[in-house]
Amino acid sequence: MEKKFVIRNSLLTDIFEHPHTRNIYNMCAILFVGLSFHNLGIEYLTTGRVTFGFEVIKTSFVHLDKAIFVWSCCFASACALFFIFKLWLSLRTCAGGLTTVFDWLGLVCLALYYFYSLKLVTGAIRYFNFNISCMLLLTLEQPGLLMKVHAFVRSKASEELPRLSFSKYLYFLFAPTLIYRDAYPRTKTINWKFVAQCLLEVVAVFFVFPFSAVNCFPSSERWAQKFTVNEVLLLIVEKIVYAAIILVCPFFMGFHSFHNFVAEILQFGDRLFYLDWWNEHTINGWLLKYDKLVQDWLYYYVYRDFRKHICDKVLLAKLTVFLLSFCVHEWIIFCCTGGLVPIMFCFFVVAGLPLTFFEIPKNMLSVIVFWCVTLLLIGIAWVLYTLEWYARWKSPLEDPTLWELLVPRFLTCDCVLKI
């Protein structure tokens, strides 16, 4: 069954239209303002001044111009691929009995394009020595761009007489979806009041979230000393509260506000970017609902194609999806920290995959246990990734071997842990 696009709002947009549930939005806004004053109070009492997070943002985006240049190169290559693909289709049509050869040649070239696109981003991050925000900008955007390219090529290559339109392809590159169609349901007008509201939400979370995140790190004076195992465990416990912020703020800013902002500007009708993941009690349900755009892409272009063209085994298809998701997440973390801490492997493959085959009854207890465990795991990941980044920064390796890249640096250097 193919995905059907219909005109519909995001789930939170409909929920907040009701007067009673609108109060939840107001309460979140109040908590948001309270958290802001809390962070400002901490900053004033500890440093004697208030910067409103501008210094954090300025430091994080010090190389923003170079990051935009690298992204522009990646985007230009995605646009150029349209014309290369069009040329490939023309040559394949005239190939006669060599269509199979052209198919394999196109597949190899596409795989090389994916590989070198990711390599370009990785090399640019190392060459320009980007800060964490610019790293995230590139490493989160590039996989999404490649997924769009793959969706377009996969959709058009399977058509008997494909009609290619660059304007439709360009619209797809900006539209908040990863499933290609020549046409999508469009709204008749642009609600500029809704656009302003979404933009205000994006800006508010953009300024407060990094400031809140920085305040949950140990101070620079504390980093000068080694951490004991008990202190690391204490850090993990302390970060459980901030784990909820790490989970909710990027979701609300990215999946709700920013996607709705882009959709409204482009008059893109189908805005079901997520489902009610907050009501889930299993990791499989949460993964399916938290980011519906990526899950749709994984289902149509990985899971379904794997079962149709390679092997009709549910287990192998699920394993392929989990491994691909794990590899992309680990690539993002590797680019940002400089090392490999296989936390995502434990989350996705070791813990996530086996649990998809068990039916866990849904009740209040199962929901509470699931979210307590989830926040604990996010806290563990937050602390361990922070330790790895700090270890790679304080004790860098000029020419690391493969083993030194694969083994977490904070376990081998003598500058972080005191065991």
From TrEMBL:
<feature type="transmembrane region" description="Helical">
    <location>
        <begin position="24"/>
        <end position="46"/>
    </location>
</feature>
<keyword id="KW-0472">Membrane</keyword>
<comment type="similarity">
    <text>Belongs to the membrane-bound acyltransferase family. Sterol o-acyltransferase subfamily.</text>
</comment>
<feature type="active site">
    <location>
        <position position="329"/>
    </location>
</feature>
<dbReference type="InterPro" id="IPR004299">
    <property type="entry name" value="MBOAT_fam"/>
</dbReference>
<keyword id="KW-0812">Transmembrane</keyword>
<feature type="transmembrane region" description="Helical">
    <location>
        <begin position="95"/>
        <end position="116"/>
    </location>
</feature>
<keyword id="KW-0012">Acyltransferase</keyword>
<dbReference type="GO" id="GO:0005789">
    <property type="term" value="C:endoplasmic reticulum membrane"/>
</dbReference>
<feature type="transmembrane region" description="Helical">
    <location>
        <begin position="194"/>
        <end position="212"/>
    </location>
</feature>
<keyword id="KW-0256">Endoplasmic reticulum</keyword>
<protein>
    <recommendedName>
        <fullName>O-acyltransferase</fullName>
    </recommendedName>
</protein>
<feature type="transmembrane region" description="Helical">
    <location>
        <begin position="232"/>
        <end position="253"/>
    </location>
</feature>
<keyword id="KW-1133">Transmembrane helix</keyword>
<feature type="transmembrane region" description="Helical">
    <location>
        <begin position="340"/>
        <end position="358"/>
    </location>
</feature>
<dbReference type="GO" id="GO:0008374">
    <property type="term" value="F:O-acyltransferase activity"/>
</dbReference>
<dbReference type="Pfam" id="PF03062">
    <property type="entry name" value="MBOAT"/>
</dbReference>
<dbReference type="GO" id="GO:0008203">
    <property type="term" value="P:cholesterol metabolic process"/>
</dbReference>
<dbReference type="InterPro" id="IPR014371">
    <property type="entry name" value="Oat_ACAT_DAG_ARE"/>
</dbReference>
<keyword id="KW-0808">Transferase</keyword>
<feature type="transmembrane region" description="Helical">
    <location>
        <begin position="67"/>
        <end position="89"/>
    </location>
</feature>
<feature type="transmembrane region" description="Helical">
    <location>
        <begin position="365"/>
        <end position="385"/>
    </location>
</feature>
